[in-house]
Amino acid sequence: MTLMKYNRPNKDVASKRFSDIMDEFFNDALSARRDNFVPSIDISETEDQFLISAELPGMKKEDITISLENGRLSISGERNIKSEENGKKYHRVETSYGSFERSFQLPDNVDEESISASYENGLLDISIQKNEQEVKKQIEIS
Predict the structure, then answer these.
(1) pLDDT tens sequence across 57-79
(2) pTM across the whole model
(3) Are 76 and 99 in contact (CB under 8 A)?
(4) Cα 17 to Cα 94: distance, rounded to the nearest angstrom
């Protein structure tokens, strides 16, 4: 059995209670999230490296891809919904699922060969060493 909320056919906003309007707003927002998984990403910098942390709960490291092309670092993957098992049926799912891709343009002063990544307890950590020899060029105006 699947539980569904009954929506009254009256579409007149003035006749709706405030709580009904809020329920519709948040239920629509939550149901839209299910097919649109966007992981939270933190980017920080130390004196000698850039650090990227991505929250990817419930994912296996085999489901995550990190690539670098033309100075653009991309993180992609897919978080799949758990299938019904042992007679268990879900009546409400608020967890976001689906495929995602996040890309970031790296600055010029990084050592692309030094990029390393680790994944533990749903947290992907990427570290990128800075390359002090790579500096922006000054262009003289003629």
Answers:
(1) 989 999 999 999 988 999 999 98
(2) 0.66
(3) yes
(4) 24
